[in-house]
Design goal:
Blueprint: H1 13-35, H2 52-58, H3 66-69, H4 72-82, H5 107-111, H6 116-129, E1 131-134, H7 153-156, E2 161-165, E3 174-179, E4 182-187, H8 191-194, E5 205-209, H9 217-226, E6 239-245, H10 251-268, E7 273-278, E8 290-296, E9 334-339, E10 342-347
Parallel strand pairs: 1-2, 2-5, 5-6
Antiparallel strand pairs: 3-4, 6-8, 7-8, 9-10
Helix pairs in contact: 1-2, 4-6
Length: about 350
């Protein structure tokens, strides 16, 4: 075999060598019996040496892949070595664990799919270590659909953690249509998104957030009350994390958020904990600041998020159907209002979604 050849661990080369050794031992045994004048077979005293090896080979089980024959402990050791943290490597290393999610299932996991015992073992690692990230962009909205991901059903069924970047779907609860010459907003729950999680029994940890550097302020406001609606497909969660944008957290927004948090606390029986304010590291982009909140059930208990924990964000008004939004670009679309003892400025460009068409058709 040349140095450039690649050895296939599941090839039958080694089993054949083993058969040759077995054949040799059978021949030696036959020779010894003949030397002693013994018959090589009670039923066929005329059996020759050439027919005996064939009989030995025919009674052997079919060769198996070495991966399938490894003891569990040895395979576990190999997997643990493959999963070494990047911290264990030099800064220049690009090593990635084969049990993590990098936009698709790793080639290593795919290679084991044909080996039942090894694949089942690898799924234990994948379930613990993989964090499924659901995200998209205006040109690739299918990143939010599990059916479009490069992952098998068996792998989906063991995933325990999902991160949701709702930047490009947060507006999908708002459907605009004309009624009596006016633009009207019609609210719809995102069941096209949440129903795909109902059949994922192993998911325990979920986080949801927005990319605050790539979203307009109007959609930040929608997120204040509607973010729990995107988690309504999860029946047994141990931990939920949300990052709530501060840029739109005026007095009205704070009251909305407090109301949502209080409702979640009552209905799930788990009290949400404020963790921190996550700030832009450059300290220049204050619109990227967010409050981090967590709900974590006690050990052995889970939270049912299929309940009515969120609610529709109520616009004060929607007067403009233009797509592009710049808060200070047109003062004629900004109005001064008074509510709950305070004045506010509101721009009606908030109302238009970034996608053309319906989100459930993406």
């Amino acid at each position: 075999m040349s140095s450039s050849s690649v050895h296939d661990p599941c090839s039958d080369t080694s089993p054949v060598d083993a058969l040759k050794k077995l054949t040799f031992s059978e021949e030696m045994l036959t020779d010894r019996k003949e030397d002693k004048g013994e018959s090589t077979s009670d039923n066929d005293p005329d059996m020759t040496l050439s027919t005996r090896p064939v009989q030995a080979i025919s009674t052997l089980p079919e060769p198996k892949c070495y991966w399938e024959l490894l003891p569990f402990e040895l395979r576990e050791f190999i997997f643990s070595e493959l999963h070494c943290s990047p911290d264990d490597y030099s800064a220049s290393s690009h090593w990635t664990s084969p049990f993590t999610w990098q936009g698709s299932t790793s080639p290593f996991m795919k290679a084991l799919r044909t080996l039942p015992k090894s694949y089942d073992h690898a799924l234990q690692w994948f379930g613990r270590e993989a964090t499924l990230s659901l995200t998209g962009n205006p040109w690739y909205p299918t990143g939010y659909r599990l059916s479009a991901l490069d992952i098998s059903e068996a792998e989906l069924n063991v995933v325990q953690q999902i991160d949701i970047d709702a930047t490009f779907i947060v507006n999908c609860t708002q459907d605009l249509f004309e009624e009596d010459g006016k633009t009207v907003v019609r609210f719809e729950k995102p069941t096209w998104f949440t129903r795909q999680f109902l059949d994922l029994p192993s998911v325990r940890n979920v986080s949801i957030a927005l990319d605050l550097d790539n979203i307009d302020q109007g959609y930040m406001a929608v997120f204040l009350t509607e973010w729990p609606l995107w988690l309504q497909g999860f029946t047994a969660l141990a931990k939920v994390t949300v990052k709530i944008p501060l840029w739109v957290m005026d007095d009205r927004g704070r009251k909305m958020v407090n109301g949502i948090i209080g409702g979640i606390n009552r209905k799930t029986g788990v009290r949400g904990q404020f963790v921190e304010v996550e700030k832009d590291k450059s300290l220049r982009h204050v619109h990227e600041d967010a409050e981090v909140w967590e709900w974590e059930a006690v050990d052995g208990k889970f939270m049912d998020w299929t309940q009515e924990l969120g609610r529709e964000y109520k616009y004060r008004q929607c007067r403009d159907s233009r797509r592009d939004f710049q808060f200070f670009d047109d003062i004629t679309h900004t109005e001064l209002g008074f509510e709950d003892g305070s004045f506010f400025l509101e721009n009606w460009h908030y109302c238009w979604p970034p996608y053309e068409g319906r989100c459930d058709e993406q």
